[in-house]
């Protein structure tokens, strides 16, 4: 009986997954559980970003995949092969370390050639030169790492790992030490290289913009667990937890009570106003929840003005702060129930800019709203200061 | 600007002054006097005084008469240094990478023997290696040593004493070098398909070379010149060069021969060190 019930699962588990798969991976240090029952599927050939705040266990997860740390429990498989306990030097996995970890006593050529030489690969010279060309460092081949700039060292670290054509390339905050401008150009560069070589990249970062611009799939990690995983736009538009709503961009979260649920819409009493949220964007079964809306989805207008947003209209706001940031104007609007909501309006030039103290009405299209679990902390994942 | 530069230059010279004076007084002058003495006429004596007659023949004499102790000293020094390097490397590696919070305590233990005098420590090796001591008894029991075989008064005892006495001079510079190695480099070598043993020879060892060079020099140079170990633990008919020099100065009162021997020893060590540093320096050092 139970055998029969389990059969479909069994079949699904037996089909070898050709990507990287983590199943209930846990890593407990003496006093601290850094990774707690993590499940992760990284499709072969994808650019996968592991996004989370500092200390959430990203590095520990990567180190377990690289074999530099042994999981306390759980399993890691790569292209169907169990590598949970394989020695690091036996795994088809290479890492671009957070600190680069270039060998200071070897020149750039020998740094890049290191992995090939260990595996007695033929034609080291040609391969290294091709790789140095790819990262545009041909002229630096005979220099020592200390003679290179940070951006160049970063590219050496990338080349040194990439040349081995690993099943999975792990990048641990590879751009963290670079200044903003260089970081942006390296993001494009790394993305270009990944498309060119077609390998699986797992890119760890705490920078949500970096994750969204580079990756096909983003997994948002928090306190040793994956909160949500999906394409960047999907995560951004339809977050399932307050943490994702705040960590990926910004969100207004307003307390509400569920009035009714139908097949395609949930109606919520939000501070005395009835608003609707599509069922596909309703992420709680409770009687209460957080109504969420992104600041750029909120329209601002004069009292009584008919805004282009049939459905959810919230009157009685007072502008409390205006910041002009060029492409947009960012308002803070105090609502009748005392909460301040964020509104970003594009500076199209077609609308008047409001001043602090003015009475306004807010509105948004129901299809942009989402409903989250009331028991979650509305401030989770928020960057300090942004919502203050 | 040039004014501050000039002042900085002056301050620099002032700071150098004590060292220059010290070296001039206690190195250059004695060195010159030693060199001169080595060329004095051997027929003179402390009593009657010496005559300077550029007796380069002194050098021929000492090389002919004392090449054996000279070679013996270099050999003892080289063997003791090699053993110190192996023992010291393992110890320094363990302290740097594996000792964790015991690191400082273990370093103190390494230099703890210095709290006792060099002589006392060497004398106690006499007890350890004595003919009815534990070690000799055990070696005899397992037939590594004949029934009347002994360790005392053999080269083995001298090398053991040298190794023991100079080990800290090897361990400390090695530790300083190994401790500085970023552990992530070793992880990176593993990530790049290097077996731990290969990783050691490709990463850890080359990065620790500065410590290897200074450790071997700090051990080899004093070990070659040392004669306390040979006198206390060795045999009287297997003298080392230090003993010969000492007895020429004190017992035989033959200053020119003693001085010429000292010069030969010094020249040999300088040449060997230069060759060694050159090789180590150009091939592997950063
Ligand atoms: N070797 C270790 N021993 C104890 N705690 C550790 C160790 N390594 C990491 N941690 C802890 O595990 C947590 C996750 O660390 P890490 O994976 O480096 O986070 P991230 O890379 O996301 O910033 C941190 O709180 C860190 O202090
Ligand atoms: Mg990290």
Describe the structure.
The complex is a heterodimer of chains A (388) and B (286). With 388 residues, chain A is of the alpha+beta class. Chain A folds into two domains: 3-237, 3-Layer(aba) Sandwich (Rossmann fold); 250-373, OB fold (Dihydrolipoamide Acetyltransferase, E2P). Chain A has helices at 2-14, 58-66, 108-118, 124-134, 150-162, 180-197, 208-214, 232-237, 242-247, and strands at residues 20-29, 32-42, 47-51, 73-78, 81-82, 93-96, 168-172, 200-205, 217-222, 225-230, 252-261, 265-270, 273-278, 288-293, 299-302, 312-324, 328-334, 340-346, 359-364, 370-373. In chain A, the strands form four sheets. Chain A has a six-stranded mixed β-sheet with strand order 6-7-8-3-9-10, sandwiched between helices. Chain A has a five-stranded antiparallel β-sheet with strand order 13-12-11-14-20, with no helix packed on it. In chain A, helix 3 (108-118) crosses helix 4 and helix 3 packs parallel to helix 5. Residues 1-11 of chain A have low confidence and may be disordered. Chain B has 286 residues and is an all-alpha fold. Chain B has one domain (67-285): MetI-like (MetI-like fold). Chain B contains eleven helices and no strands. Chain B has helices spanning 2-37, 57-98, 103-111, 118-128, 134-141, 155-180, 183-191, 196-225, 228-233, 241-250, 255-283. In chain B, helix 8 runs antiparallel to helix 11 and helix 10 runs antiparallel to helix 11 (255-283). The longest helix of chain B is centred in the N-terminal third of the chain and has 42 residues, at 57-98. The two termini of chain B are 35 Å apart. The interface between A and B is medium-sized, with 24 and 20 residues. Bound molecules: adenosine-5'-diphosphate and magnesium ion (MG). Magnesium ion (MG) is lined by residues 58-59, 98, 172-173 of chain A. Chain A: Residues 20-248 form the ABC transporter domain. Chain A: InterPro entries: AAA+_ATPase, ABC_SmlMolc_Importer, ABC_transporter-like_ATP-bd, ABC_transporter-like_CS, Mo/tungstate-bd_C_term_dom, P-loop_NTPase, PotA-like, PotA_ATP-bd.
């Amino acid at each position: 009986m139970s055998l029969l019930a389990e059969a479909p699962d069994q079949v699904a588990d037996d089909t070898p997954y050709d990507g990287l798969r983590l199943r209930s991976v846990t890593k407990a240090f003496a006093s601290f559980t850094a990774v707690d029952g993590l499940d992760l599927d990284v499709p072969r050939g994808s650019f996968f970003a592991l996004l989370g705040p500092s200390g959430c266990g990203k590095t520990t997860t990567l180190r377990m995949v690289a074999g530099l740390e042994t999981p306390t429990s759980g399993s890691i498989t790569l292209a169907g092969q169990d590598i949970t306990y394989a020695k690091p030097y036996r795994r088809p996995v290479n890492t671009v370390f957070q600190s680069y970890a270039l060998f200071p006593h070897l020149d750039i050529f020998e740094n890049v050639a290191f992995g090939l030489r260990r595996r007695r690969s033929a034609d080291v010279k040609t391969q290294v030169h091709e790789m140095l060309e790819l990262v545009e460092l041909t002229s630096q081949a005979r220099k020592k790492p200390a003679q290179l700039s940070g951006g160049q060292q970063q590219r050496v670290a990338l080349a040194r790992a990439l040349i081995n054509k690993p099943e999975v390339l792990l990048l641990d905050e590879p751009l963290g030490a670079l200044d903003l401008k260089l970081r942006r150009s390296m993001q494009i560069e790394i993305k270009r290289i990944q498309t060119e070589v077609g390998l699986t990249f797992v890119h760890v970062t705490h920078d949500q913009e970096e994750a969204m611009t580079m990756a096909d799939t983003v997994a948002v990690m928090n306190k040793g667990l994956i909160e949500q995983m999906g394409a960047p736009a999907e995560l951004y538009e339809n977050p399932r937890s307050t943490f994702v709503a705040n960590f990926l961009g910004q969100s207004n979260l307003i307390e509400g009570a569920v009035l009714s649920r139908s097949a395609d819409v949930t109606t919520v009493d939000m501070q005395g106003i009835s608003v609707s949220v599509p069922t596909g964007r309703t992420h709680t079964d409770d009687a209460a929840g957080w109504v969420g809306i992104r600041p750029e989805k909120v329209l601002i207008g004069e009292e009584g003005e008919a805004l282009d947003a049939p459905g959810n209209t919230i009157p009685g706001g007072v502008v409390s702060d205006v910041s002009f940031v060029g492409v947009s104007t960012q308002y803070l609007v105090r609502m009748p129930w005392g909460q301040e909501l964020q509104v970003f309006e594009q500076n199209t030039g077609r609308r008047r800019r409001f001043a602090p103290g003015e009475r306004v009405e807010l509105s948004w299209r129901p299809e942009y709203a989402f409903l989250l679990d009331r028991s979650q902390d509305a401030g989770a994942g928020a960057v300090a200061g942004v919502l203050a | 600007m040039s004014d501050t530069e000039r002042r900085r230059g002056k301050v620099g010279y002032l700071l150098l002054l004590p060292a220059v004076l010290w070296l001039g007084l206690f190195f250059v002058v004695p060195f010159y006097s030693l060199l001169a003495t080595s060329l004095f006429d051997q027929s003179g004596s402390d009593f009657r005084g010496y005559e300077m007659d550029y007796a380069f023949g002194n050098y021929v004499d000492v090389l002919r008469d004392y090449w054996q102790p000279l070679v013996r000293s270099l050999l003892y020094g080289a063997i003791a240094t090699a053993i110190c390097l192996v023992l010291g490397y393992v110890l320094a590696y363990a302290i740097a990478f594996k000792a964790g919070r015991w690191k400082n305590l273990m370093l103190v233990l390494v230099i703890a023997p210095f709290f006792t005098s060099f002589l006392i420590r060497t004398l106690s090796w006499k007890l350890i290696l004595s003919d009815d001591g534990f070690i000799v008894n055990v070696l005899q029991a397992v037939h590594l040593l004949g029934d009347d075989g002994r360790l005392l008064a053999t080269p083995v005892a001298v090398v053991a004493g040298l190794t023991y006495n100079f080990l800290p001079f090897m361990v400390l510079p090695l530790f300083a070098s190994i401790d500085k190695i970023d552990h992530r480099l070793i992880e990176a070598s593993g990530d790049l398909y290097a077996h731990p043993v290969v990783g050691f020879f490709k990463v850890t060892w080359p990065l620790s070379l500065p410590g290897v060079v200074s450790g071997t020099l700090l051990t080899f140079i004093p070990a070659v010149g040392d004669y306390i170990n040979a006198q206390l633990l060795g045999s009287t008919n297997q003298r080392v060069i230090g003993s010969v020099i000492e007895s020429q100065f004190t017992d035989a009162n033959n200053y020119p021969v003693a001085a010429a021997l000292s010069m030969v020893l010094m020249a040999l060590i300088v040449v060997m060190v230069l060759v060694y540093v050159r090789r180590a320096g150009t091939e592997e050092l950063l």
